[in-house]
Structure formats: C-alpha cells, structure tokens
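Weekly modeling sync, notes
Attendees: AB, CL, MP (scribe)

Item 1: holo prediction request
CL wants a bound-state model with adenosine-5'-diphosphate before deciding which constructs to order. AB pointed out that an apo prediction alone won't tell us much about the pocket. Agreed to run with the ligand included and paste results into these notes for async review.

Input as submitted:
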Amino acid sequence: MAVTQQQVIDVLRHVDDPELHKDLVTLNMVKQVVIDGGKVDITIELTTPACPLKEQIGNDVRRAVSALPGIKEVTVQFTANVQASPQQKAAENNPLPGVRHIIAVGAGKGGVGKSTIAVNVAVGLARQGATVGLLDGDIYGPSLPTLMGLDDLHVRTHGDNMILPFDVHGVKCMTIGKLVEAEKPLIWRGPMAHGAFRQLATQTQWGELDYLVIDLPPGTGDVPLTMAQLLPLTGAVVVCTPQKVAQDDARRAIRMFQQLQVPLLGVVENMSYFIGDDGKEYDIFGRGGAQAMAGQMDVPYLGGVPINMRLRANSDAGTPTANFEDDAQLARELQNVVGNLASQVSVLTHGGTPLQPTISVS
Ligand code: ADP
C-alpha cells in the first residue's frame, strides 16, 4: 500500500532545522507533499533563499522519508519566504515598511574593504534569489558609482519627490554619488549629514525588499546615529582587516552598535590572506586577527575574504557579479560570508542558535 501524506508529515516531525532547533512541520516549512506510487516529492520553504544548510536539510528529509515502507525515490524542492525582522514588525512610523531586513555594514576606519563587502554581500544575496537593495550611506565618500558600475546611468525620479533606484547586477541601489557632481567634495555639517542620509534612505522607491544593505561611512560619526534612530535595523556587520590596529578600530565600531542597541550580526575578516602565483597562502596581515577579536567581543564571525587581484579589478570595473564566477576560491569565501549572514538574520528573526560558521581550509 502506498504511503499517505500524513505518514510523510509525521516522519518530518522528527527532522529538525539545524539552526532553529525545531522540526520542519512545527516551523511550517513543509509546503507540499506529492505522492506518486513509490515516489514522493516534497517542497520545503526556507527562511532565506541564501540558506547555507539547504543541502543538509534536503539530505535529512530524503533520509527520513526514504525509511518509510515502499518508498523508491524522494525528491526535495526548495522555496524561500523571508519574514520581516521583529524590529521591522514592531516599528511605529516605519519609513520603509516594505523592507523585511535592514543590514548596516560598518567599519572602524576607511580602506578595510567595507564598501567592497557591502556590495558583494548584496550581490551574493541577490544571486541566491533574494530581492535586495543597496544604499550607499557613505555620504562623505560614496563608492557605489564605481563599485556597481553606475557611471553611465542617469538618475530617474518618480512623482515629485521619489527617486528610482538603479537596477544593476540584480540589486536595486542608490547613492549620493549620482545626485551630486562627481569629484565635488562632500562636506556635511551634522544636521546636513542627517538630512542627506534620511532623504537617500526614505525618498528612494525601494518597493518590497527581503534585504536592504546599507554601506555606512567608516568610523563612529553622525550617520550611524541617524540611521539607528530612523530605521528599524535587523543588525550590523563590522568589516575588519586582521592587523591589531584595525581590530582596535573595529572594537570601537562594535561598541558603537552595542550602544545604539543595534544587534551585531557578525564580523567579516577582509584581506584575510593572499594566495600567491605559487598557490601558497600568505598571511600578510596576520590571518585570524579579526576572527579572534570577534570571539573576544562575543560577536559572530561570518568568514574571511582573501586579498584577491580579481576582486580589486572587478571592483574598479564595477562588475561585482564576476567575483562569483571567475575564481572558485574567491566565490566560495564570499558565498560563505553571504550564507552565514543570511543564517544570522534568520536566527534573529525566528529564534534558535546558528551553527558555528564554517571556515574554509584549502
Ligand atoms: P572601505 O569601504 O573600507 O573604505 P573599499 O571597499 O572602498 O574600502 O576598498 C578599498 C580598496 O581596497 C578598493 O580599491 C578595493 O577594491 C580594495 N579591496 C577591498 N577588499 C579587497 C580584497 N579582499 N582584495 C583586494 N582588494 C580589495
């Protein structure tokens, strides 16, 4: 006799989401069970399309359902439904009600690759199927025109006071760099900085987004304060290079977010190491320094990104998609950061504890 849907669902009551620590049925992740003789096709709804545990969940489901009598084949399909953060749901007078998660990317100081990581996190999430926006909150030194290749594009408006975001590399993005003359120094007094950030964030027509990534100015100035007061953030990412001096600055950035009561989603160690032409890995800046600092500060570690000439060249050329296509190791490291970040966001939204982020060793 063929198995019934109920039998399949009962079995899935014993398969847990590895991070949310509840079973897939209780979490309402089992969306469809189709039985055709000895074949079963199951649709699982993930909390994020960038879920790094997709494979593990698929294997666990297949193993559990295959154990039922008469089952010859189990296939698992995935969909994703990103739910808004508790902060977003609870916010009163929310200026961005269509955005499910707002993720700020900050750094203790300039030049550590904060904008590069913000861009690649946004593009990486979009490549997994999420709807993503990217706001250049670095109103003093906007980098998105270059990093996202916006030079030849023109700003378009909607109605009297809304700006349409640029739609590039699968990401909707906006930057002050396209609203002012290029190369003009951007000098903002405190209240002007506040106003410029506010306008960029709230007068861009973002529409519905799973994730809005905000590239902050380096350091601990006015903009993070404005942002934390204005927007219901899911959390912040701090980018740091491994050296001691960089760690000291990153600690200050972490403390700033803590003071602003913005949850820390994690630390990314950029320029972690370098791979020479000889294939050897060189720890130029002392690989692991930012990771150790994250551990000391009790902040999750999201992964490391190597010093990579293609990453630099693709950034200058405004072609971030190539970072996920041309160099397998770079793509793996970036994807690792993207997956770990998406996990942290899901865990903050749904409860649970994230698995220890993986550190790739080649
Ligand atoms: P920040 O936003 O912290 O000021 P950027 O993201 O603008 O830093 O990066 C500064 C420079 O370093 C850019 O030219 C960028 O292309 C380069 N860069 C950043 N990360 C890496 C990396 N991992 N490998 C190679 N170049 C990098």
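Recorded for review: The pocket of adenosine-5'-diphosphate is lined by residues 107, 110-116, 143, 218, 270-271, 305, 307-308, 311-312, 315 (CB under 6 Å).
Action items: CL to compare against the apo run; MP to circulate these notes.
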